Amino acid sequence: MYEDNYKKRRAYYERRRKRKRRIILKRTVCFLLLAAAVIGGITAVKKHLSSKETASGISKSQVTEKLKAIEIPAFVDKQIIHLHNTARTGTPLDGVKNIVIHYVGNPGTSAQNNRDYFDKDSTEVSSHFLVGLDGEIIQCVPLWEKSAASNWRNNDTVSIEVCHPDESGKFGDETYKSVVKLTAWLLSETGLDENAVIRHYDITEKQCPLYYVKHEDAWNKLKKDIGAALKG
């Protein structure tokens, strides 16, 4: 009799312990699921906010409006290419951190030649501005949109493609003056200084602009001249 009661009590307490373990397990699982949901929600909110904010802490729409408000000077010939392919997608810039100098790589071709090439349906590249052999400047892409010139930095840079008379890639005198003038103006409008002027080479190590990659002294002089024009 005593042994039977003992077994019953033992079975009873064992059932209670199992129920408690199940309850604790269920509560633990619920807590973990709730915690995961909260963390996931916080992460999603952060991603949403970061996608709407730029490095400068303002929204992309505010960046677009600021860049749209910049008045293009009379020395620039506006010939905006049509929306097509990757050359011009209409995608807004995230901001402007750098001005990137390129060379066209086609000796003797004019700014107009290159602009018309950018405008072809099959073309996948472009730049915001082209500087020609006689110093003429053509705008190809709106200042607030991405161009297709600087690889993974297309989202936060303004690109300038520069024409050159020969294979060396060295800019002619009139071209050089216009590069300095245009770049200084862009720096002034975007609140940057000459240290924000970089080469395509500085992004990808591509030999572009060729002469100013091979001759570091010439590149440093160009930046110095841009800085002087900015301050002057």
Topology:
Layout: H1 2-52, H2 60-68, E1 76-78, E2 98-103, H3 111-118, E3 129-131, E4 137-139, E5 157-162, H4 173-190, E6 197-199, H5 201-204, H6 210-214, H7 216-231
Parallel strand pairs: 1-4, 2-5, 2-6, 3-5
Antiparallel strand pairs: 3-4
Helix pairs in contact: 4-7
What can you tell me about this protein's structure?
The chain has 232 residues and is of the alpha/beta class. It has two domains: 1-52; 60-231, 3-Layer(aba) Sandwich (Lysozyme-like). Helix content is 48%, strand content 10%. The protein has helices at residues 2-52, 60-68, 111-118, 173-190, 201-204, 210-214, 216-231, and strands spanning 76-78, 98-103, 129-131, 137-139, 157-162, 197-199. The protein has a six-stranded mixed β-sheet, sandwiched between helices. A hairpin with a 5-residue loop joins strand 3 (129-131) and strand 4. Helix 4 crosses helix 7. The longest helix is centred in the N-terminal third of the chain and has 51 residues, at 2-52. The radius of gyration is 30 Å and the shape is elongated.
Strand content: 5-15%
How large is the radius of gyration?
Answer: 30 Å
Query: Could you say which structural class the secondary elements and strand pairing correspond to?
Result: alpha/beta
Outline type: elongated
The CATH homologous superfamily of the largest domain is named Peptidoglycan recognition protein-like
Model regions low in confidence, pLDDT < 50 over at least 5 residues:
44-55
The count of β-strands is: 6
Provide a count of the helices: 7
Distance between the termini: 109 Å
* Side-by-side strand order of the widest sheet: 1-4-3-5-2-6
Structural domain tally: 2
Estimate the helix proportion, in percent. 40-55%
Biggest sheet details = 6 strands, mixed
Assigned CATH class of the largest domain = Alpha Beta
